[in-house]
Amino acid sequence: MAKVEQALRTVVGDAPIERSGTEGHFGNAIEVLESTLKDERKILSVLERMAEEDIAEVGSSLETRIDDACQVFIRLDKQRAYLEELRLSKGEDVVAVRIKVRAFPAKPDIAAEIMRDVLQEMTSRRGR
Predict the structure, then answer these.
(1) What CA–CA distance (Å, rounded) separates 37 from 127?
(2) pTM score, whole prediction
(3) At the top level of CATH, which class does the domain 38-126 belong to?
């Protein structure tokens, strides 16, 4: 479990981590680690530490990553996070990230546009 916590720490830094238990499909015990970042700078820091091509991928696939509650879902490779590298993953062994976008009115298309602007700004700052 220490390796999983280290992978999560790579994403959330020193934010508190909550632990809870649940049961898997075959009755196996599962420990769930969760953390919440509320500071916008810390949330942006997570995105800024991602590879440029992954930021571009998130930006181009926002319509499939955002739900009706204006939350953007990103799946980061847990093994690479343990090695202090934030990369997207399509697999199952992930650190699941959910970003709530403040949009008014709270509509997915408006939230997607806000998130797209944030990602483009981030990309343009890297190019300077």
Answers:
(1) 27
(2) 0.90
(3) alpha beta
